Amino acid sequence: MMRRLVRETLSADPDFAVVGEAADGRAALGLMGELQPDLTMLDIEMPVLDGIGTLREWALAGHGAVVIVSSAARPGSELAVLARRLGAASVVGKPSGAFSPDLRDRQGDAILRAARRAVGLPAPLGAEG
């Protein structure tokens, strides 16, 4: 459900095309290598290989920007600082914990701003911050 909400949030912006989706960090690294996306959205809490492990491996030879959307790495937290140190362009907190069905409604604008900034696009019209 969380992947669907992030996908729908990005797909609502005509400047983004979602080209892949992975259920875990190891699969994400495979797709990142294969598809070479300009932007990857990661969570910290993922099976097989967590977001920090994925980010560590991506940092060695990855392509494109990474934005973290996670309840475990709220902006300013120790995990968020580590994620930024490892190369994440931005960290956006989930509003209601790991399972945030209100993600698009409460953080959709923040996710789009972070994604657009990460790939060098201007903020969407009417967006503040």
TrEMBL record:
Signal peptide: none
Protein name: Response regulatory domain-containing protein
Residue numbers carrying 4-aspartylphosphate: D43
Domain Response regulatory: 1-109
Highest taxon listed in the record's lineage: Bacteria
Keywords attached to this entry: Phosphoprotein
Species this protein is from: Teichococcus deserti
InterPro entries: CheY-like_superfamily, Sig_transdc_resp-reg_receiver
Classification via Pfam families: Response_reg
One of the protein's GO biological processes: phosphorelay signal transduction system
